[in-house]
Amino acid sequence: MRGQAWCGKGDVAAVHISTDFGQTWQEARLDPAPNRFSWQRWRADVTLPQHGYYEIWARATDQDGISQPPLSPVWNPRGYANNIQHRIALVAEA
Question: Where is the Moybdenum cofactor oxidoreductase dimerisation domain (predicted)?
Answer without folding.
Answer: 1-90
